[in-house]
Design goal:
The chain is mainly alpha-helical and 278 residues long. It has 11 helices and 4 strands; from the N terminus they run ααααααββαββαααα.
């Protein structure tokens, strides 16, 4: 990577980090806008890769369904909206199913499966982020979700640095048939840095759980994030593309930057929910 590309990648990364930090710390409405923006972009890039311009109306319905699910859950957690009203998010999903009956050209009808895949793969994980920022109904605090992102970023940085400096020359590849550049050395570099980030966040008072819980969460989120990265890589390899988009100079698309988060954030939330400490 030449210096120009490295500078572009660095500046873009700083911009993304600043945007996420601001969105999480400025308040619940900024959080809502940030997560909706990510959801829409990731689903758009996923559909562009898998479906192109086919069944465009159903694609839009799916994005609308994802936003509806997130917003209703946000209103339930943030403003005490009756929980039963969250079920209204199923209306646009039902409309997608009905709309499929009226599509005249069913040559590639199997592509409708990508509609439901996107809802499960993108919409549900992004919606779960609400449970990381609302510990009590209406009580917003973006610190926990920011800690999750810091762990994910630390894992990515560790995997990149150790993978580039050592992983390409020494050691075994992680998943050579899916992502030839990923190595076990990179994985362990990301793993160690994720744990170090969790410990640092704990000691500065941001990660407010006992240290052992912080470290376990970091380990689980690191592994989940690596799988999230590999899952996106498998999609891209199948469709023979390098990046999911061009929205972020030097990085690719929005999906490229948040692929790990789609798996890591639910892993953190589920851990806290299962242990009843969220």
């Amino acid at each position: 990577m030449n210096m120009k590309n490295l500078l572009q990648r660095t500046l873009s990364g700083i911009f993304i980090i600043a945007g996420v930090v601001a969105g999480l710390l400025l308040g619940k409405f900024f959080f809502c806008a940030l997560m909706i923006l990510i959801t829409v972009f990731v689903m758009y890039e996923f559909f562009r890769m898998t479906m192109g311009g086919e069944y465009r109306f159903s694609q839009l319905l799916a994005i609308f369904a994802a936003v509806t699910l997130f917003v209703l859950t946000f209103l339930y957690m943030g403003f005490n909206l009756p929980g039963r009203l969250v079920m209204l998010a199923f209306i646009p999903i039902f409309l997608i199913m009905v709309n499929s009956l009226y599509v005249k050209d069913k040559t590639d009808f199997g592509k409708f499966a990508f509609i439901y895949t996107a809802l499960l793969y993108v919409a549900v994980p992004m919606t779960l982020s609400n449970f990381a920022v609302f510990r009590f109904i209406g009580d917003y605090d973006g610190t926990l979700l920011l800690c999750f992102f810091c762990i994910i970023w630390a894992s990515d940085v560790g995997a990149y640095v150790f993978g580039v400096t050592l992983g390409q020359k020494y050691g075994r590849k992680l998943f050579p048939e899916i992502s030839p550049k990923k190595s076990w050395i990179g994985f362990w570099g990301g793993f160690v840095l994720a744990l170090a980030a969790a410990a640092a966040l704990h000691y500065v008072g941001m990660f407010s759980y006992p240290l052992h819980h912080c470290l376990i969460m970091a380990a689980l989120m690191n592994v989940a994030g690596v799988y999230g990265d590999l899952i996106e890589s498998q999609w891209k390899r199948h469709y023979a593309i390098k990046d999911s988009g061009t929205a972020i100079p030097g990085h690719g698309g929005i999906w490229d930057r948040f692929d790990s988060a789609l798996m890591a954030i639910p892993a953190g939330v589920i851990y806290l929910v299962v242990l009843n400490i969220l």
